[in-house]
Every structure is written in structure tokens, then in C-alpha cells.
Amino acid sequence: MTSDQYTFDDPRHRYPVISPEVQQQPEPGLQSAMTPVPDLGEATYRGTGRLTGRKALITGADSGIGAAVAIAFAREGADVTLSYLPEEEEDARHVVEQVEAAGRKAVAVPGDLTSASFCRELVARAVEGMGGLDAIVNVAGKQVWQPTIEEISDEQFEETFRTNVFAPFFIVKAALPHLAPGSTIVNTASLEAYVPAPDRLDYATTKGAINNFSKGLAQQLITRGIRVNVVAPGPTWTALQVTRGVDPETLPEFGSSESPMGRAAQPAEQAPAYVFLTSAESSFVAGETLNVNGGMVTP
Ligand code: NAD
Ligand code: MG
After folding, report:
1. Which residue minimizes the CA distance to atom 22 of ligand 1?
2. Which ligand 1 atom is nearest residue 192's CA?
């Protein structure tokens, strides 16, 4: 195991090749009940002040990639508003503790992002709770595996779009009056945006939409000094995978068969990309998609 994210080790072996047992939970799932529990970087992420004084709103911040981002942001000096579903309170508490242990403010706002009015309330509570807002990180996502198009209910199709595409739209629109020049937005696409798995049709389509939305929005908002970028993760061990995100029978091979790296990522490995795109180091980067996928080829 690495000592922190700056250690020059062999990336193939930075985290173990996992072969998770077949396990399932109802959506959205609790990562604390997963085997193995995903690594959010609690023991390894070392902050160096790259986000000092930032006030960030992070969705999906209770678990997986969003939680790793919240911990990293706090250790880099940012206050954090965490968005998650009420059923995820237990996972969220763990992240709130980590943020507070880093000496930063944690504002917890449970609620359902498929509702436009909740998205607006979330932004208002972030601004109120942190005394401002200058970084948005949209990580929340819905992914439900269905082998055929007929098996995707109209409701699932709509909910997947509402969670993955509509919510970032609602949140960005509500946040803009508060975002001064120098603010940043980072959205979350996926390898699926370019390489759609046939059994994740609705999900993969939303990820293509997020990429496209972000590139258009980036051109619009750069005229106001706001940078928009995207992180596109590859296979990462998170609760999404054990809540029917993928075919449950494939869990023992999760990540190891598709990635040239020969293993799945841990959420801790996604966080530095979000830190980079939110920090001032990336001042000339806008409309970019940073692929964090273990070496899979993208356009
Ligand atoms: P995760 O289950 O840990 O996180 C997803 C979060 O989305 C949940 O914790 C939940 O809080 C939030 N969410 C879902 N529906 C919501 C709703 N209606 N209202 C409010 N919050 C809601 O899984 P993760 O893998 O960390 O997912 C984070 C993002 O990463 C997603 O956008 C996902 O598409 C993307 N992604 C993940 C992978 C991967 O392999 N894990 C790969 C590519 C992209
Ligand atoms: Mg969760």
C-alpha cells in the first residue's frame, strides 16, 4: 500500500486486484456494508493547500468517488457541502467526520436531486452554510443494469436522466448568481460516454450527454471567468456496482478484465483529478475531459 498519493509506486499494484464476492443491496446502497469497503483515501490523501478557502458543493458526497473528492477537498483547505440521499446518512456521517477532522466546515444536505426544487434548495443551503460558493462538483449518478432495451422501464429511463443530466443543469443554473470569476464546475462522465456497454443503455447515454453539455457550457461560462471541466472515470469499486449497476454475476471480475491496468480503481484514485480541475493550477484548462480509466483508449 502506498504512503500517500505522491508516492512513485507501480500503478498496477498501488491498490490490490480485488475479486469481490457476488453481493447486492437495494439502491442507493451503503458502502460501509460492501466487501471490500471502497478506499476513499482516508489513510493516504495528503493535502498541500491547493484549494485553500474554496467553498465547494459536491453531490454524491456520501460514498465512492464523491466521498473521496470531499475528503481530498477538505484536506486541500476547502469547506464542503455534501449532497446525498437521506438513506445514506450513515455513509455521509463518516465523510462529515473526515472533513471536520481536516479542520474544515461540512454542511450536510440530504435530499433527492431528481427534484428541481430540491436542487435549488441545495444551492441555497450551500451558500448559506458556507457563506458563499465557488466550486461545484457534480458526482451523483444513477446506473441500473438492464440486458435489453425492453427491460428499461420508462420510469428508470427518466430517473437516470433526471439524476445524471437534469440535476447538474438545475444546480448550475441555481448556482450561477453566486459564482464569481475564478469559480469552477466539474461534472462526472464515464468511459461509457465513448464505449457504451450494451447493458447500460440509458446510463451510457446520459454520460455522453454530460460530456457534451459540459463542453458547450464551458465555452459559454469562460466568458464569465468560470471554468467547466469533466472527469471520466473508468471502473471504480463503489456502491454503484453492488446496487444492480452491473450484472451481479460479473462482480468477481470487476475491473480486472477490461482495464489494461488489470484492476479496478479505488475512489481515492479519482479524487486528484477533481482537485486539479478545481484548483487554480488548471487555470488554462476548460471544456476538457480528464479520463481516469486505467489506460483504456478514448477518442
Ligand atoms: P456511489 O454509489 O458511491 O455514488 C453515487 C451517489 O449518487 C450516491 O452515493 C448517491 O448519493 C447519489 N445519488 C444517486 N441518486 C441520487 C438522487 N436521486 N439524489 C441525490 N443523490 C443521488 O457510486 P460512484 O461510482 O462513486 O458514482 C459517482 C459517479 O461516478 C457517478 O456519476 C457515476 O456515474 C460515475 N462513474 C462511476 C464509475 C465506477 O466505475 N464506479 C465509472 C464511471 C463513472
Ligand atoms: Mg452512496
Report:
1. 140
2. 43
